[in-house]
Every structure is written in C-alpha cells, then in structure tokens.
From TrEMBL:
This is UDP-N-acetylmuramoylalanine--D-glutamate ligase. It is found in: Cytoplasm. HAMAP family: MurD (MF_00639). The keyword Magnesium does not apply. ATP binds at G120, S121, N122, G123, K124, S125, T126. Belongs to the MurCDEF family.
Length: 456
C-alpha cells in the first residue's frame, strides 16, 4: 500500500459540502463518519435519492439557495467540481482563507489504497473503465470512482479496496493541493472548457498537469509522446515520477508503442506484452492509445500477459461513447453523446467508415472546428444540427459539408438523418458541444437519441 501524504486541512470542526450530487452526498457521509459537523448546501433542487441518503444519515441540508453566513462559518468546504471558482460564495470563502477542496482530495486523506488517476481531454472515461476492467479481471481488489461510477468518498467510507482507478476532470484537479497520484495518466490535451480558463489554452494545460503534482520518484507518469500540447506542457511541468510514454510513431525502451500491427508494452525487467491491434475489442487509432495507457498501468501492477490479453479483447465500451444503438434499414445508428468537444468528434469520425450523417451542435464552448474539415469533406454525407445556435458550425463547415440542416428536437434530428442516410451509412450523434440548452446532460441527450432511433 502507498503511504498517505500529509494533508494540511482541518481534521475536525464544521464542514460544508457545496452541491448535493453523487460526490457531494458521498463526501457528507464520509465527513460525518470522520467526526465533522456536516452540512450540505445546494443552490438547485436536490434529487430525491440523494435527499433520502442525507435524511437516513441524519445530515442537515438546504436546497434552492446558499446561506452565505452559515457557509462562511465553516472550517473547511468541499465543493462540487461543477461549481466554478468564480462564483461569489467560493470567492468569499477563499478571501477568508477557508479551505475549498475537491471530493477526491478530501477522501484521499482516509485511504491507503493505491491511486491510479486518469485525465485527458478525450478518452479518459473509456481508459478509466478499461483500466478498471483489466485490473479487476486480473484479480486485484479495485474500486472505480471520480468522474465516473460511485462517489470516491462514499467508497472510502463503506468499502475496503486496495486500488482505485479514478477518472479526473480538470475541474477536479483545480481543487487539489496535496493530493498525490501513485500512477498518473495524461492521455492528451486539446482545446476544451476554455470558458472556465479565461479562454487561455495555457491555463487549461496547467490544469491538466496538476495530475503530476506531489508525485515522487517511485510513482509513475504515463503520457502520450505524440500529443503536441502535452509535449508543450512538459517543457514547464517537470515530472518527478518515472515516465512511461505511449506512441504510434516512436518506440521506447520503456513504454508502449506499435511494431507493425502489434501493440507492444514494455516495462523492463518484466516480460514484454505483445497483442495484435485487430484483436483489441476497441478499434480505431484513438483506442490503440487508450489500450496502451491501460496496458501500461496493468503491466506496472505485474498482471499476467494472458489475463491482460483476455481483458483487452473482451472489454465493452461505456454508454454514450461510440455506443452502437441499432441497424435499421441497413443504416447503423451510433450514440457518441459524450463527445462534448471537437477533438472527440474527430476521433469518432476517424474510427468510422464513410458515409456518415453527423448529428452535432449544442452549447458551443469556444470550439475551433477547423480540424474537422478534412474528415467532413471525405467522410460526412450530411450534418444535422441540434441546439439553439449553430452559426459557428455553419460558418466553419459549410464549404466542406454537402448538406447542413437544422432540426427542432432530437426526434426531429433523427428523423431527418434517417431520410438523408442510405443503406450502408452510419448516423452518428457526436455533438462537439455541451448539452444544457436542450437537455439535462449528455446522458439525457444520448438517451433521447436512442429513444428516437428505436421509434423510427
């Protein structure tokens, strides 16, 4: 087991949790278990299952508002990653030097499990799930948490895992100070969420590199040697941990790389792992990178090659990420609602054969669609726009797309796409945008797509 780092935060007193979702309620239960005087505040309406958990635990809460005086009387505050640091109550807390931290940072204080942490602009959910799948199938006692699965804090309070695989968003990393990853994985960096980073790419890069903060020489840092923004960040952020690169273009003494059609994973003095990429359950160039990262994590835990190969060949992808929905009248329908940025859409288009009817649009986060132009020109039959304002998609892709049309709802978009598609085509929902203009979240968007497809 890893040594728990020192966390310079109050270990007793009044603790307020801001946000009563999965992470917030889990934090409240763990904090209560550790002897804090806990209170939960959510400016929105708390979902009934979470209210029930809080009531059962006897934890006080408010909804529909933040009572500032009560929050500012806290000794420590744990906030939801969805709450920006720019909101008034967070700024007031910081002005009064009251610690405001993330659930992951708070919960990590109370476990000696090995923490395998995965971030990146794209592919982190798939890689996190794949890593958990390989490790658990390999016989390790491993939990799954972070931006996916059940609350990390709740699992620390109620379970006893030897390892955790944690998917970490940049928002989570922003609120961590003393947290240390035993294994840190940075898959890639592309322009995303720049609205939370003053529209400065360098701020977003800095945020992603917080994953290596506090690492030591005997820890591991896995990164993509083919990713230009990661390489740019490495000029400023020098890892203390042992580095293991992944690449489709270079070969390394220690790392993961391609040799012909073989994925090679090598961490001397262990036995090399070799697997034909056509035997991987997840296909496409981006998924080779994902398998390289997950495979390196597994090999570093000394899993057997036979177990790794079986797991990498049997894994099924997560919902809303290139999820096959149905084949209707010879047309395949694919749900990629989790593709909330341009790079994720590029990966989706790259992994599919022409011809594609692409459903995209929503709340634009400052997207640059330039990188899609070649794929749209060569693979996309038509674009069907969803969302309130898709002027940037028109401005950027009008010259490259054969057809661009608007829709009035997801059902309307699917019906239009079904008429535009021909036998052998793929209708792909891959929005490149946030969902909250028409939908509750990306899951709701994907679920509505699947429902509309099944109603054709």
């Amino acid at each position: 087991m890893t040594a728990i780092p020192t966390y310079h935060y109050p270990q007793q007193g009044k603790l307020t949790v801001l946000g009563a979702g999965e992470s917030g309620v889990g934090t409240a239960i763990l904090a209560q278990q550790k002897g804090f005087d806990v209170w939960v505040s959510d400016s929105g309406i708390i979902a009934e299952p979470y209210k029930s958990q809080l009531r059962t635990a006897g934890i006080a809460f408010e909804e529909g508002a933040h009572t500032a005086d009560k929050i500012l009387a806290s000794d420590i505050v744990v906030k939801s990653p969805g709450i920006p640091n720019t909101v008034a109550i967070v700024r007031q807390l910081r002005a009064q030097r009251i610690p405001v931290i993330a659930e992951i940072e708070f919960a990590a204080q109370y476990t000696d499990a090995k923490l395998i942490c995965i971030t990146g602009s794209n592919g982190k959910s798939t890689t996190t799930m794949l890593t958990w799948h390989i490790l658990s199938r390999g016989g390790l006692n491993v939990g799954l948490a972070g931006n996916i699965g059940k609350s990390f804090a709740l699992q620390v309070a109620t379970a006893d895992y030897d390892y955790y695989v944690l998917e970490l968003s940049s928002f989570m990393l922003d609120d961590m100070e003393y947290f240390r990853a035993d294994v840190a994985v940075l898959l890639n960096i592309t322009s995303d969420h720049l609205d939370r980073y003053d529209y400065k790419l360098e701020n977003y890069i800095d945020s992603k590199f917080r994953i290596i903060r506090n690492q030591r020489a005997d820890d591991l840092f896995i990164y993509c040697a083919d990713d230009p923004l990661t390489l740019e960040g490495l000029k400023k952020h020098k890892p203390s941990a042992k580095t293991l690169p992944i690449s489709l273009m270079q070969q390394f003494e220690a790392g993961a790389y391609l040799q012909g059609n073989n994925l090679v994973i090598n961490i001397p003095p262990q036995e090399r792992f070799v697997m034909d990429i056509h035997e991987l359950s997840l296909q496409g160039k981006h998924n080779v990178y994902n398998n390289m990262a997950s495979g390196l994590v597994a090999k570093a835990q000394e899993l057997r090659n036979a177990s790794m190969k079986e797991s990498m060949g049997s894994f099924k992808n997560i919902p809303h990420r290139l999820e096959f929905v149905a084949c209707i009248a010879g047309v395949n329908y694919i749900n990629d609602s989790k593709a909330t940025n341009v790079n994720a859409v590029w990966y989706a288009l790259e992994s599919l054969a022409p011809q594609i009817v692409l459903i995209m649009g929503g709340v634009d986060k400052g997207n640059d669609y330039e990188m899609l132009r070649d794929l749209v020109r060569t693979k996309v039959r038509a674009i069907v726009c969803i969302g309130k304002d898709n002027s940037r998609i028109y401005d950027s892709l009008e010259e490259d797309a054969q057809i661009i049309v608007n829709s009035s709802s997801m059902r309307d978009a699917v019906e239009i796409a079904s008429h535009l598609a021909k036998k052998g085509d793929t209708v792909l929902l891959s929005p490149a945008c946030a969902s909250f203009d028409w939908f509750k979240n990306f899951e709701d968007r994907g679920d509505q797509f699947k429902e509309a497809v099944m109603n054709l």
